[in-house]
Amino acid sequence: xxxxxxxxxxxxxxxxxxxxxxxxxxxxxxxxxxxxxxxxxxxxxxxxxxxxxxxxxxxxxxxxxxxxxxxxxxxxxxxxxxxxxxxxxxxxxxxxxxxxxxxxxxxxxxxxxxxxxxxxxxxxxxxxxxxxxxxxxxxxxxxxxxxxxxxxxxxxxxxxxxxxxxxxxxxxxxxxxxxxxxxxxxxxxxxxxxxxxxxxxxxxxxxxxxxxxxxxxxxxxxxxxxxx
Length: 228
Fold this sequence. Notes:
Structural class: alpha+beta
Number of domains: 1
Mean pLDDT: 96
Oligomer: single chain
Number of strands: 8
Shape: globular
Strand content: 25-35%
CATH class: Alpha Beta
Helix content: 25-40%
Low-confidence stretches: none
C-alpha cells in the first residue's frame, strides 16, 4: 500500500444488460489506457464487484457500484488529466450520471500486502458535521474499530478532497463526487471475514459509532475482487 501518492477512484454503475464478462473487458481495457496516460510510476488497479455480494441486501438509498478503477501517482493534477474524456468511451455500458470520481489520499491504518478481495464502504457525512469534523471523528475515533476488526488483512481510510473530486468528476464526465471517504477492508477470504464479523462482540458498537458522523442510509457498501 502507498499512502503518499494521490489517488483517484472511479466508481462505475453498469447499465442493465451489461454482463460481467463485458464489464470486466471494459475495466481491463481502461486499465491499460489509463496507465499509459499517467506519468512514469503511475499505477492503475481494477476491481469487479462480486456476483454474489454478501452486502447486496444492506439497507441504503443509493445503489452499489459494479466496477472500480483506482489510479495513483505522485502528481495529483495528472490524475484528472488522465481521465479526461472517460465518460465518452464508456457511456454505452455505464450510467455516467450515477457513477462517481473521488479524489484524495489514503490513510493506511493496518498495512498489508495485496489481497484478492476488497470491501468498500463509500461513506457520506451527516448534515450536522462539516467535512473536516467528519474526518476528525473518522481518524481519531472510528479508526480504532477498523484497527481491531477481525478477519481482515488490512484497513485503509481513503479521505476524499471535495474540490479535487469535483474537478476529477468534471474531467471524467461522471456525475458523482461528493462522498467524504471510503473505508477499505483488504480481505484474503470474504467468507472468513463474514464468519469473524458474525462472532465479533464489538460489531454493534462500531455500527453505533457510525451513527455519530455517517449518513448511513446514503452511504453504500459492497465487495469486489481485484482483476490481475
